Amino acid sequence: MDNKYSCYVFLADAPAQKEILTVFCEVKGHTKEEAHEKVTKELQLHKKERSYTLKYVGLINFPEVDQDVIDRQDELFEKYDAVWILNCSYNQK
User: From CA 54, how far away is CA 42, in angstroms rounded?
Assistant: First the structure.
């Protein structure tokens, strides 16, 4: 992960499966609406077994990133062009 990136951040929510994904889309070359479309497209292509509700979280800048995250980026993220997916899960109470 290049620490000079700014990204739009989305949550891809699939409550029925108790799954939520944190999805990043590079700001460079994309408006927020284009990023939303690009994230939707990548989820449909690569995560088609689930139906997600996409929620916009905001814009994040990466002025500093722990070296461990940089070193493990291929392990932590599914990368599709300008879209990076960080898999997470949550427990419903």
Answer: 12
